[in-house]
């Protein structure tokens, strides 16, 4: 049973990855219309939905944490019910999808202060995950090779290796910067204004870009 399950998920990941590679190559070569059509295809696919649900209900650390609806998705039956619910939502149209408010909790920081954290519902997390699956290869084709944060197959060791190489050949300058209360204080409108025109069109046609608020 375990071996068969691993084989099935390997197939699902490969099918999704194959489509992501096509999006990456189309973006890299400047064929944005082709990339956008492939992103539509991937975002609405059964396999990407399966993978998104698995990510938020099985692999992520917060998989057992419910949102404002208090719904948890733990059993195989519940997970497949979520897949069906998502596919029904997607079929009705992304422009009609409305996420629920995020649940606001506070996490203690080392300095004794509290850091606010918004927790979406499991379904909203899965909808975000399937969107990430579609958008990620588009942006991976555009990101700088020296950017390492929150990217697939990259991490702190890659950054350390890059720094070590730079110190051998260049002036030894290190800049350490921190944005106070980053996620609460950073200008989200400015960030949105920096999104590529092609991705904006994709987002506008596929999502409800609204502020859901907190509860």
UniProtKB/TrEMBL annotation:
SUPFAM superfamilies: DNA/RNA polymerases
One Pfam family it belongs to: RVT_N
Domain of life: Bacteria
InterPro entries linked to this entry: DNA/RNA_pol_sf, GrpII_Intron_Splice-Mob/Def, RT_dom, RVT_N
Secretion signal, residue range per the UniProt entry: none
Domain Reverse transcriptase, first and last residues per copy: 88-215
Family: Belongs to the bacterial reverse transcriptase family.
Protein name: Reverse transcriptase domain-containing protein
Source organism of the structure: Candidatus Thiomargarita nelsonii
């Amino acid at each position: 049973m375990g071996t068969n399950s691993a084989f099935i998920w390997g197939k699902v990941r490969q099918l999704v990855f194959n489509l992501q590679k096509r999006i990456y190559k189309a973006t890299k070569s400047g064929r944005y219309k082709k990339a956008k059509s492939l992103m539509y295809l991937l975002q609405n696919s059964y396999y990407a939905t399966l993978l998104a649900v698995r990510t938020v209900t099985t692999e992520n650390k917060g998989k057992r944490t419910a949102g404002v609806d208090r719904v948890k998705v733990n059993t195989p039956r519940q997970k497949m019910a979520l897949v069906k619910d998502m596919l029904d939502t997607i079929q009705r149209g992304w422009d009609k999808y409305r996420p629920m408010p995020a649940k606001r909790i506070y996490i203690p920081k080392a300095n004794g202060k509290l850091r606010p954290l918004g927790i979406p519902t499991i379904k909203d997390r899965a909808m975000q995950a399937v969107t990430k699956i579609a958008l990620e290869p588009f942006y991976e084709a555009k990101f700088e090779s020296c950017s390492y944060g929150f990217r697939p197959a990259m991490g702190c060791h890659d950054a350390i290796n890059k720094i070590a190489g730079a110190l051998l050949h260049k002036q030894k300058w290190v800049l350490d910067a921190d944005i106070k209360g980053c996620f609460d204080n950073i200008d989200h409108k400015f960030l949105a204004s920096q999104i590529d025109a092609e991705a904006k069109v994709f987002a506008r046609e596929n999502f409800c870009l609204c502020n859901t608020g907190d509860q």
